[in-house]
Amino acid sequence: MSYVRFGLMILTSTVVMFILMYLNTYAWEHVFFSETRTYMAVLMGATMAIIMLAYMLGMYKNTSLNIAIFVGAVVVFALSLWLVRSQVTVSGPSYMRAMIPHHSIAVMTSERAQIRDQRVRKLADEIIEAQRREIAEMRYLIADVSGGNVADDVYQDPPAEPGDVEDALSNLLVSTLDLAPMSEAEASQVMEGGASCTFNRSPESEPILWAGEDGAAAKLNGVLLALDAAGDPQGEAAGFTTPGMTVSVRRLGDEGDWRADAELVFELERGLSVGYRGFYTCSG
User: Fold this and answer.
1) How many CB atoms lie within 10 A of CB 54?
2) What pLDDT band is residue 1 in, cutting at 50, 70 and 90?
3) What distance lies between CA 158 and its chain's CA centroid?
């Protein structure tokens, strides 16, 4: 067997291992290129080169070349391990592209595991919702940060103060607030005329916004809110407001793809702002 054939075998195996690492993602829209996974695939390829050559030394008689392959594989292994552990080449967008497939694995295992204990099922459902929310937020941030909009600060809650349990129960941490998925039945409680458009963080989850010509509905901190519409909900951009809060939706147009076709930005007058990329669907 030639050394060229051996090299092609290691290279092919490395590429295949990189691809296989994505097979446990929940949905295709969660597949993003990951520098960390690339380094891991190279690390495994270097390991394979050492093991396979050690087992097949009888087939490869060039001692100098064998030593060079062993040394080179060890160097590649050490370098790729350092790159994985140090994350020195990973920027903000690269970090999020790596985290989305990772979150997707959590969604798949949490949804499909055979769970009987209701406490564990509740925990799994909370993990699913949190991961889907963060995936949608990371899709938004990847586009925003890659476009040059790098934030220097974010809203932070006031420092904690001494108190009792009643104080803790009545205290509202604004930084933890977020729009929650809501059913059509919930939306109908605060909307008149029904909804013609919805915004979903993922195709599998309930919408976080129901919108129509007469207004919109959202759920915040367990409260169903009615919002006034500013503009055509079925247009390229739409806004919805209620005292203290604004929700804006923009269709991505040429920016959109199979991962997301719209972005939603949720803002509170207190200073909190959170964006998501997902799916904005209108009927009629």
Assistant:
1) 10
2) low
3) 28
